[in-house]
Fold this protein.
Amino acid sequence: MKSAVIVFPASNCDRDAKVALKQMTGKTPAMVWHQDSELPDVDLVVLPGGFSYGDYLRCGAMASQSAVMRSVKAHADKGGMVLGVCNGFQVLTESHMLPGALMRNAALKFVCKPVGLEVQETQSGFTRKYENGQRVTFPVAHGEGSYFADEDTLDRLEGENRVAFRYAKGENPNGSARNIAGILSEKRNVLGLMPHPERVVDDVLGGTDGRALFQSLIEALS
Amino acid sequence: MKITPEMVREHGLSDAEYARILELMGREPSFVELGIFSVMWSEHCSYKSTRFHLKKLPTKAPWVIQGPGENAGVIDIGDGDAAIFKMESHNHPSFIEPYQGAATGVGGIMRDVFTMGARPIAMMNALRFGEPGHPKTRHLVSGVVSGIGGYGNCMGVPTVGGEVNFHPSYNGNILVNAMCVGLARQDKIFLSAAKGAGNPVVYVGSKTGRDGIHGATMASAEFDDASEEKRPTVQVGDPFTEKLLLEACLELMATDAIIAIQDMGAAGLTSSSAEMGDKGGSGIELDLDKVPQRETNMTAYEMMLSESQERMLAVLKPGREAQAEAIFKKWELDFAVIGITTDTSRLVVKHKGKVEADMPITALSDAAPVYERPYTERKPQTGEPKYDKAKPVLASLKTILASPDMASRRWVWEQYDHTVMSDTAQVPGGDAAVVRIHGTNKALAITTDVTPRYCRPDPFEGGKQAVAEAWRNLTAVGALPLAVTDNLNYGNPQKPEIMWEIVAGIDGIGAACRALDFPVIGGNCSLYNETNGEGILPTPAIGAVGLMKDVTKMATVAFKRTGDVVILIGETKGHLGQSIYLREIEGKEEGASPKVDLAIEKKHGDFVRKLIEAGRVDTVHDISDGGLLVTIAEMAMPRGIGASIGIAGLPEAIPFWFGEDQARYVIAAPFAEAEKIVAEARAAFITVAELGKTGGDKITLDSKDSISVADLKAGFENWFPNFMAGEEIPVTN
Amino acid sequence: MKARVFITLKNGVLDPQGKAIGHALNGLGFASVGEVRQGKVIDLELSGSDAGKAREELKAMCEKLLANTVIEKYEIEIK
Amino acid sequence: MKARVFITLKNGVLDPQGKAIGHALNGLGFASVGEVRQGKVIDLELSGSDAGKAREELKAMCEKLLANTVIEKYEIEIK
Ligand SMILES: Nc1ncnc2c1ncn2[C@@H]1O[C@H](COP(=O)(O)OP(=O)(O)O)[C@@H](O)[C@H]1O
Ligand SMILES: [Mg+2]
């Protein structure tokens, strides 16, 4: 499986994503600069966490306009897989590759802590190695992760089984609508989520619940 | 412009100092020169009150690569790697504008570290606020914490720990001390000596504005039309630009284009150019017309004194300008060649065709005043405080755990991204943070410590204790303590009783560092922390770093199994003077501060560390604030595993459970291992006691009274969020 | 030419920040304060002098970048 | 009664957000955009109908809570 990690000027989980991909797939991903308009020939594109352009104006807003995002969209349109984590999720909604928006946390504070999630949908290349309803723990680290969409959109997401991860009962860290933590695109080849699976692949760091996400990708893309 | 006595005074220079300036210059200084003298001779830049005493600190060890004097200290951590770290205060700006003050404090200390070639890998912060009930406290806590998070989170450097205290002595003077730890290769460390003549001096980063210009702005005719426009303004941080600056600098450092590099911190262009010239033994000539400017009509005075953030000054090898410029352009940062090094040893500043300053650099450095300020020695406070022996122990435990200085700081550290960079092996809440060296199995342990309430009654013992506690915290996770950076926060050194606190504090730190083989490789002094004549508690914060060879052996405070034997290492006499118990339960701050026996400290610590390194023990907590019972509760709460403990033949329960005797640890280990450990301790003449066993969901004392761990935890966890719930509005943009 | 753009949350989109401000103001004794909403104001210097053209351009800026029209609406003011 | 309060950075205070927005707009081809500054707008519902009194109250709210007068200035508009 070949992958690429997009690097915006103030991405800061790009290395974390690279290390996790390397550890899980055995191959070092290509690191692609935001001003590059071409993507290398890869199966998976990762939009990492961080602050892309300082998260000024709105998180992910300026990144969604960058040169590389046109290619990322084209990659997704052709059915290529795209994973957006945290700031990457924000970039995906700002680019309209996923519906809805991520708003300031309800408590108005940045929050970094492990949260319990439920895997809601295993019919995807990102989640097939999880069990339906499986409880996992991923850390979150964001100030604007409250998922918002109008009721129709939320109904449709649920109706089409596109909610991949939900915060478990009592665990919603940011006020997200219907406890949504991560959603799939219509074609199910784009996943955006606020929690960080790449921070839980290594035992020393207190958890390995993120591994199955990368294992799913490997299986789906081989 | 004629310099008047008024101007001299408003630049914070004494008559004697000004006389010395006239002598050094051989003429009256220009207004710009006066401004330059005033910042370079300020307490902040020249350490004029403390330099004499700081010299007494031990700064050497085989593993010290760079001691005090550079932007940050450097130690050898094996395999060609170096840890580079430093702590710095941003107290006053944080009181004026807590969010920006704290944010720019974080930005400043990060630049000190990456200017030396290191990638920052961890941040810490030591915070002191006024009493919780003071009308400003909540607002300050909220602003400072979001400012630290706002900057550090964007930089993508994990903020992994620190400390928070509340005390009325900080009502008008909060302390915000930030520490940054970075990682570099030993053969890629950059210094600030601008050696050689004819080399280009380049300016990179943000543009210069009128940020944070202090001093005599009002005295100057240039400010006659002092409009809103020209008012000195608070520095605002731009972490996005800093992130670009970090990446661009590291990219440039990977080439061999740099001769010297230095961040522009306090007194911006002035101190960076003077220090680089001074260290390199060369002169520097600056052309201010070339300086990237954010505002119009800036004067030479303003540019030389501006404290705009996110800027660096570098001296390049000739001919490398284009290569460097390409890198900074890629990161969309300003880049300008603004000067050249010379062989004159003078700082020359030109602006609009006029020479605004021309002065010998040594006048700014070597010739800066050093004072041996008079001090009045004060006998340490003594006495055994009285207390009510009938007070129930477990009820007091609950009260203490839910008190401002002891309650969980989760509310604080959950606002910091403490796991970014995917190397945080121990998150905040334990004895020390542990951050793995990327791609290896080794790790750095990091802590900051000081117990200010011990430092007023006994500044010497307080200084010792701060170092000992830092050393103990590193030991408790299994690290070998290597070196210290300090942040000496005190009141007005021109008062002999305060000067005594400074001198004794430094002596105490020195004594402990020598005994523990724990050199000081950098530091910062923040003096004049006073409002209306009321000084803060002496607060010599100690930041310290230790090394773990094998991160998988790391110990944590949490009880992990049922049936583990709870072992107390160290002697308990029951020292209640200046204890948390006395303050929270009896409502008084009295008696002698606890004394640290440094030889015993070392012996106990070495014993505990060996057990951890050998993989024999994974559950350790040192005993500090609150005493033994608080320590045990802190071990029980993380996983809700209780313990049944007690000790036979106690003459008095309260001092035993709550005394703050030093050099102690609690460890928990399975029975067979525990028996061996106790025997080995006895054989080594270490005081050791078996207190009981872990298990259940209660803490039970002497098989009689008990209290639910969940109950304790509720109080412990809720104090901070409940306190902050009355907050006005979280700082947002 | 100077322009000011207001970006505010659409009706029906929850505004926790506005709510917190309202709450805090009430808490400070400003009893007359009812609903509070917070938005952004962006002041721009524009070269050129054709106000109509400027308005068109500002609209494009809002649609493309300044506002997220999923949750926000905008108003343009040319001074 | 409705009121609108504008809170903007004082002149001379660095505005990293505004700077970044201006930069981004130029990058998107809006070449006419010069300096950009970002501020807040707060819309409040007020009970009572005395505009003069309301203005006084709003001023107090700004000084006490809404603006950080160390770096920000404010304008009040009553509709
Ligand atoms: N300002 C802060 N930022 C981050 N973590 C903090 C802060 N203050 C305290 N902590 C964390 O809370 C824990 C308890 O702090 P403290 O009581 O000072 O520890 P100790 O007694 O071991 O020195 C530590 O892990 C510390 O890192
Ligand atoms: Mg400790």
